[in-house]
Structure to design on (528 residues):
């Protein structure tokens, strides 16, 4: 019998077509990623672990870093980074992938984005779950400060949402944007403290910590998840303000050019 | 509620698309186009359309390929905005139905029903209730959890029709959606449902090359030709104009009508 969680939830929760639609779209997106494979959802767990092990092996050999618990250090950085990379790449394509919706019904244009961000957040939650499961094996104890990871990751999701709004519009006018964005991501990958200690680059270029909000999110998430510490509150609020300001800009760009963009697709 | 309440209104609606042709050219020539805008063409898809659709009406839209029928639908839904000076409004809940709906080939019938059901404005609870009825109507009981990429065209058409009947919208904008679904037996059944429940109490805008459907159901028909509205009236009146246009172009209307020879 294939009655899903959705079926049972729908019998308890109040009816709301808009949110139900967003949920079904997000769920479908998430499902399709692993649908064809034999292992299915297990890949959602395997992927982050395999990725961590590869980077760990390579970088501990090359960099020989003086960072305790290096495997988990890399893992926590990769959680943020892979999410950011995959979700913004996907964000670029939202209007194209969801065109049939915009074409056929009167829908709040943001619904497509909300569902897409939600589907990637499910993936993010899987990654964090894997991290939590592995933690005890790496002597990472539980701390209530770990709960800070929730607003920090939410901050990341808002940032992705905002960037998607801008990228999707740019991409419909100039297809080269997806190439440009890939190059940009490649550069960003290396200026973020994913493999090395934050001091390495940010003591030389402290401005980078603020220009690039991903760095602050990685640093703060580590404090919360690995070290059981309070995050750096200046960075925390700064990154939230950054994401919200970018969201404001994104919403303006999107509202202004949405219809023109759709004609170009 | 007034009887002749206008639910869709287009005033001086024109639509021009600016398109950039893809040509092979040296890199620097292409860069030049970015600056001086060469290689860009303007296509007038619709020219100064004025049209009102009343509540409860069944409006048929006919015309050759590329005459602007689908663009007209897109303007009605607000998906496209008219050029400056034009105004398009629709003031009731609507849904645009096109062939294949938003079906995802990789999903099963069950998943597609939930996905498309929510898209069509149904709540999950309503879909739970109507689920068995939809499957039974589409006669797909044995294929509920089969991915629809393994379905035949007829099976897909039946499924999309079974879902669309329940759409929660007062206006249905059908873009080549209905007409000759499935085999003869299903055609009879769907015709009956179409008449008795799908279009009843709703406002319908129906784009089709299948003139017999339009002949049977439409209360008013418009004829589009090269972006202009060239004829409006009862099916018979408009088909006459259409016939004349095609005669000039040495085509036969008979080719446009299916076997039961509506005209």
């Amino acid at each position: 019998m294939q009655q899903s969680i959705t079926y049972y939830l729908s019998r308890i929760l109040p009816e709301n077509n808009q949110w139900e639609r967003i949920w079904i779209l997000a769920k479908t997106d998430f499902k399709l990623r692993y649908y064809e494979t034999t292992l299915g959802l297990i890949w959602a767990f395997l992927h982050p672990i395999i990725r961590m092990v590869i980077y760990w092996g390579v970088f501990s050999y090359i960099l020989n870093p003086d960072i305790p618990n290096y495997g988990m250090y890399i893992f926590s950085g990769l959680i943020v980074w892979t999410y950011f990379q995959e979700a913004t790449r996907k964000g670029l394509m939202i209007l194209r992938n969801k065109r049939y919706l915009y074409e056929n019904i009167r829908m709040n244009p943001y619904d497509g984005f909300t569902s897409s961000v939600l589907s990637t957040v499910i993936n993010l939650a899987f990654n964090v779950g894997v991290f939590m499961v592995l933690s005890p094996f790496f002597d990472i104890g539980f701390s209530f400060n770990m709960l800070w990871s929730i607003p920090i990751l939410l901050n990341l999701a808002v940032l992705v949402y905002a960037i998607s709004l801008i990228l999707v519009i740019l991409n419909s006018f100039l297809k080269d944007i997806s190439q440009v964005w890939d190059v940009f991501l490649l550069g960003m990958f290396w200026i973020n403290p994913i493999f090395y200690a934050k001091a390495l680059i940010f003591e030389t270029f402290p401005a980078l910590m603020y220009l690039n909000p991903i760095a602050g999110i990685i640093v703060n998430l580590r404090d919360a998840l690995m070290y059981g510490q309070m995050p750096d509150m200046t960075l925390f609020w700064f990154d939230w303000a950054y994401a919200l300001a970018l969201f404001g800009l994104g919403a303006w760009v999107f509202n202004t050019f949405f219809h023109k963009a759709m004609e170009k697709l | 509620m007034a009887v002749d309440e206008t639910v869709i209104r287009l005033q001086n609606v024109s639509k021009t698309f600016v398109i950039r042709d893809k040509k092979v050219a040296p890199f620097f020539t292409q860069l030049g186009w970015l600056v001086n805008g060469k290689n860009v063409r303007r296509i007038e898809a619709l020219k100064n359309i004025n049209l009102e659709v009343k509540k409860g009406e069944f409006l048929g839209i006919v015309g050759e390929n590329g005459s602007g029928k689908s663009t007209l639908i897109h303007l009605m839904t607000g998906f496209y905005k008219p050029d400056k000076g034009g105004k398009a409004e629709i003031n009731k809940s609507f849904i645009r139905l096109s062939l294949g709906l938003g079906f995802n080939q990789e999903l099963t019938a069950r998943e597609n029903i939930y996905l498309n059901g929510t898209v069509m404005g149904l709540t999950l609870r309503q879909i739970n209730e109507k689920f068995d009825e939809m499957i039974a109507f589409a006669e797909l009981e044995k294929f509920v959890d089969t991915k629809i990429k393994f379905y035949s065209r007829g099976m897909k058409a039946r499924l999309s029709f079974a879902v669309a009947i329940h759409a929660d919208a007062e206006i249905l904008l059908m873009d080549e959606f209905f007409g000759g679904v499935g085999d003869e037996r299903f055609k009879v059944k769907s015709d009956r449902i179409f008449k008795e429940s799908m279009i009843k109490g709703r406002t319908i805008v129906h784009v089709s090359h299948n003139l017999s459907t339009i002949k049977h159901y439409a209360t008013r028909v418009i004829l589009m030709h090269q972006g202009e509205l060239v004829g409006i009236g009862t099916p018979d009146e408009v088909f006459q104009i259409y016939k004349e246009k095609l005669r000039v172009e040495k085509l036969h209307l008979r080719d446009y009508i299916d076997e039961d020879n509506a005209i």
